[in-house]
Amino acid sequence: MTTPTVLWHTTLEQSGGPTAPLVVLLHGRGADERDIATLADRLPVGPAYVALRAPIAEGGGFAWFANQGIGRPLPASLATSVAWFTTWLDSVAGDRQPVVLVGFSGGATFAGGAVLAEPSRYAGLATLYATLPFDAGVPTTPNRLAGLPVLLVQGSTDRVIPTDLQARSWAYLHESSGATLFARRTPGGHGLTATDVNLLADWLSALPADPPSHD
Length: 215
What we know:
Rossmann fold, two-stranded antiparallel sheet, 28% helix
């Protein structure tokens, strides 16, 4: 695995204090950290914001995991990337630092894998135009995300993420994950809109100041 490449928009020192949230922005497959870092310009003041580059070079960009089809990570690859990510996260975020993962497309599938692997580590998950990594070695048991704030955004005409995986994610998060869920299905396809960014900003602003434990 490569040494993490990061782009800080607001550092921990510039944020709202030692217990202010750290919001990690995770780009889509084939992109890099610069593609998603600009989101932070339109998100609430207070958290620290950092965009992270995925560890696997792919084409002209980077990917979070090797897959067996779109939205279907290979379990060993996902586990290796989650371990790499967790090591980096532990090096930058203290024990009292709430960590929120915000991912788009492949970055959101990866974020879902990291959160499902260790729900107690995170204070929130925003999964945008993606699927959770089902059948990829991380638990998707009932109440796995009990009480965890989750933002789910899907596109009604998204033809990138397989429709069966979108439906499975929608059902799991609504019916059995136990998450504190806010979900929106847009009329559009596979891409963030200004409305989506405003929704994300509002969701971040509304996160609990003292996140509950998920042990």
